[in-house]
Specification:
This protein is rod-shaped. By secondary structure, it is of the alpha+beta class. The longest helix has 40 residues.
């Protein structure tokens, strides 16, 4: 029996030392130390041996079992470490690479792109970009822009008042606070602090109680102001023509139509020639151009010469209406973006639908 134990020990030691993987080592453990292993059977049969053999056989069998168990544990650690090193070497992952699938790089919103385009064009024409508060005083939003408290034009720009009781025209005053209806309040704010000549644009968010395919309660507007000695309506037309040709193409033309705005006199609305039908009103294969509705022109915004009454509010800052003249213009950034990109509904810009936005990547 003792000779058999020596043989089991020798075979087990050789097999364990020669194992090449953790799986093979597990099979050898079962073979030599499992419940059905020969060594386990010998240990279970100690009680059946002669009393004189029980001690020597039991001691030798336990010694072989403990030796093989220790050898298996040692080999497991060695093989596991080696397999881990091999796995790391063969399955190396470069964590600095992008994930799979690669996510598209983000991009600016089309409204932001259009705003920056307008700013770049106007800076090239010598204008500076200024910003003003979105929560504004009635004085700057209406009164100083020739909208007295009882002026009916206030109703056309109905907005959201911050302080209670400020909505009624007869109650309106310089202390009332509201969400600005245009970026024009910066005209007066800028003239209060900057003597003439002054050439500026004011892009930003504005608010009115409108909501349909071409109007939104919150929208973006660009206000332009030029003040100096000897400025005329011809300068306004030249400025608008240069700006719109940069935005819509060198072949564009503009026209002005008489209109009314409280803070300009005379006032005009300006249109750009349709870039689909090239101003003809007709497109081959169609009865009329569906972009300009067959008139050959697309309305963009309002403009005019600054009313002397507006200069009266900043006379002390150097804006004597007898010495300086100026023009102002304004238009919606969404309007420009809709025309440039063929978007039919202004509200799509605010839906955050990636199917639309990804087209501008």
């Amino acid at each position: 029996m003792l000779e058999r134990l020596e043989t089991i020990e020798a075979e087990g030691t050789a097999a364990v030392n020669g194992a090449g993987s953790a799986a093979e080592l597990e099979n050898l453990r079962v073979k030599f130390l499992g419940r059905k292993a020969e060594l386990t059977g010998i240990l279970r049969g100690i009680a059946d041996l002669e009393p004189a053999e029980r001690g020597p056989v039991g001691g030798a069998a336990n010694k072989v079992r403990k030796g093989l168990e220790a050898l298996v544990e040692s080999r497991i650690e060695s093989l596991a470490g080696a397999e881990l090193e091999a796995s790391l070497a063969s399955d190396r992952i470069d964590v600095t690479l992008p994930g799979s699938p690669v996510r598209a790089v983000g991009h600016l919103h089309p409204i932001t792109r259009t705003r920056r385009l307008i700013e770049d064009v106007m800076i090239g024409l010598g204008y500076q970009v200024m910003e003003g508060p979105e929560v504004e005083h009635d004085f700057y939003n209406f009164t100083a822009l020739n909208h007295p408290a009882d002026h009916p034009a206030r109703m056309l720009q109905d907005t959201f008042y911050i302080e209670s009781g400020a909505g009624a025209p007869e109650e309106a005053g310089p202390r009332d606070v509201l969400l600005r209806t245009h970026t024009s309040p910066m005209q007066v704010r800028a003239m209060e602090t900057t003597p003439p000549p002054l050439f500026m644009i004011v892009p930003g968010k504005t608010y009115r109680r409108d909501s349909d395919a071409t109007h939104s309660p919150m929208f973006h507007q660009v206000e332009g102001l030029a003040v100096a000695e000897g400025i005329t309506l011809a300068d306004l037309k030249g400025t608008l023509l240069a700006m719109l040709r940069e935005i819509f193409g060198p072949d564009r033309e503009i026209r002005m139509r008489p209109h009314f705005f409280p803070f300009t006199e005379p006032s005009v609305e300006f249109d750009v020639s349709c870039f689909k039908c090239r101003g003809s009103g007709k497109v081959e294969g169609e009865d009329r151009c569906n972009l300009c509705k067959g008139i050959g022109w697309i309305e963009l915004g309002g403009a005019g010469m600054v009313d002397p009454n507006v200069f009266g509010f900043v006379r002390e800052a150097g804006y004597d209406p007898d010495l300086v003249t100026g023009f102002a213009f304004g238009f919606g950034i969404e309007r420009i973006a809709m025309l440039r990109h063929g978007v039919g509904d202004l509200r799509l810009f605010f839906d955050n639908d990636v199917r639309l936005l990804e087209q501008f990547s």
